Amino acid sequence: MVGMKRLLHISIIIILTVLMGSGFYLLGATSTSALTFSSDVDISFTFNPTISLSLSSSDLVIANLAPGSVADSNEITVTVSTNTAYGYTLNATVGQQTNYETRNLILDDYSGSSSDPIFTSLAYGDSESTLATDNTWGYAFKTSTANAPWSNYSGLPLYSDSNNVTELIDTDGAAASDYVTFKIGARAASTQAGGEYKNVISFIAVAKPEPVTLEVAYRAANKTKLNGYYKLQDMDSSICAAVEVIDDELQVIDTRDNKVYWIAKLADNHCWMTQNLDLDLGTPTLTHNSTTLYHDDTDLGWGTDTATTSWTPNRATIAANPYGSFTGWSNQYTQQYSADPGDWYYAGYDGTTLLASTTVNYLTSTNKVTENGITTVYNDANYTTAYFSNHPFTGAGTSNNGTHGHVGNYYNWSAAVASNDTSAYASSTYSNPDNNPQNSICPAGWRLPTVTNANPTYETEGSKNEFARLAKLYAGYSGKTSLSSAGLEASPLFFARSGGVGSGSLENSGFTAFYWSSSVDSDGYAYVLKFDATSVAPADDYGRRSGRPVRCIAR
Fold it and tell me: Where in the chain is the domain with CATH 2.60.40?
């Protein structure tokens, strides 16, 4: 009477083609060429992931239950065998639709009336060391772990109660076999009617499916790869929603220039770029071989502003000169500017410790040391601690996995929202994120984060204060400014204190982080995520003229 409700059966066909060849010479022939022939032999086999369940006995019997006492049944071993790679659960329920629709033990010759003698089950979820109440029963089990103790008596859920599950085993990977030892116990009143009391327990082994990572979600959505990477532009809400593994990350490619970025599904249930954007503006893209960005590759016309489906930057990204400044930069509040400092990597967080704060401008020539063609920028004259380097780290900062800590480009706010002139966004009425610019230089399928005001509420999922939500989840932010930024700089976020561009040169690099949102504060100002080694401000307002890094969030 003990059965298994489900087992997983998957068929995978693998077909291998083997080329078999044979050659021979024609005796007496004058030609030295060999005649050859080949024949294809198809090889195939079916692999079936399996899961099975076996019981050492099909009966649980309490043989000697004396009036006014507690007794246990015999012990049975429930064994699960499987070759599944992702683990399984072993559950138990009581009752069976064709025989018993109750959690109680019923007298064998019952009439079906409410007055029939029963042993009442302990309530589901209850657990006690002894059966304290007369005419009750419960189960107990222990795992295969050596010397594992018996659990207390507990109550099983009814087979049809889908909201409750008694979990005996939960594994995360394949195991050749595992088992539990299981028994029941009962307490009888001295006045309880004699006879045989029955019910049915079902053990249910369920194989776990492959966990849905970003890689699996892209694959399940039938997305194709470019240069071996899935595409940033193929991200959509259904892909991100399907991902079950939080903080799972994946490298994907931007089809506009074939640069590769890290992305991750984070604890706020959104997918984020965990690397700074490095898109050069005003140069021909690989997608369209022009300087214009379009709806199909860029965040243009995807929000409420569906009228704007293309944008041609009127100024190309300015590359840093040998002295770390940007010739041609102008501090404009409404006109777009962007800057490329080169391939620099942030090393302010070494995976364990935040390095000391300082106001030194790390990308100035006075702090550069070049050895064997590799330039490193240091925080003081003793050259002890590297904050930026033009090569992936082999020492401090290795936790950034090379490209996580890439500084990327700097954009003023007009460039970040993909506009040559943002003078129209000049009113504080735009503090509602739904009224803010809906376009950006993020890839298609992505956008700039939003905030609502300088003192945000952010506790609930779905908050418009998206930087603050991350700060709450990863840095413990609770509205206080005296807070370490370690949670923001560490895995899986990898935000960098990469400073910005002001008056044509870098400022606060290695000291302070500023990341643009799409949210307007007031004339000439927009909100940023700002932090340094000792404080976090997830909705600070800064002048739009400054060049800041950009991180994108999936739509």
Answer: 51-207
d(CA 72, CA 75): 9
Q: What angle do CA 333, 337, 338 make, to 5 degrees?
A: 135
pTM over 0.90: no
Nearest 5°: phi and psi at 240? -65, -40
Nearest to 440 by CA among 449, 432, 430: 449
151 and 130 Cβ atoms separated by less than 8 Å: no
The two structure tokens encoding residue 442: 């993020």
SS (H, E, C) 109-174: CCCCCCCCCEEEECCECCEECCCCCCCEEEEEEEECCCCCCCCCEEECCECCCCCCCEEEEECCCC
- In the chain, what is the greatest distance between 2 CA atoms, to the nearest angstrom? 109
Mean pLDDT, range 419-437, rounded to an integer: 78
∠ Cα 114 119 124 (to 5°): 100
Spatial contact of 531 and 512, defined as CB atoms under 8 Å apart: yes
28: left (phi over 0), alpha (psi -120 to 50) or beta: left
Q: What pLDDT was estimated at residue 322?
A: 64
Give the single-character DSSP code of 96.
B
- What is the Cα–Cα distance from 445 to 232, expressed in whole angstroms? 8
Domain 51-207 is in which class?
mainly beta
Cα 306–Cα 307–Cα 308 angle in degrees, nearest 5: 95
In this predicted model, what pLDDT tens digit does every residue of 17-66 receive, in sequence order? 233 333 333 333 444 556 777 788 888 877 777 888 899 998 999 988 88
Q: Are strands 345-346 and 386-389 parallel, antiparallel or unpaired?
A: antiparallel
Query: Which stretch of DSSP H or E encloses residue 240?
Result: helix 237-242
Provide the residue type at 386 as one letter.
A
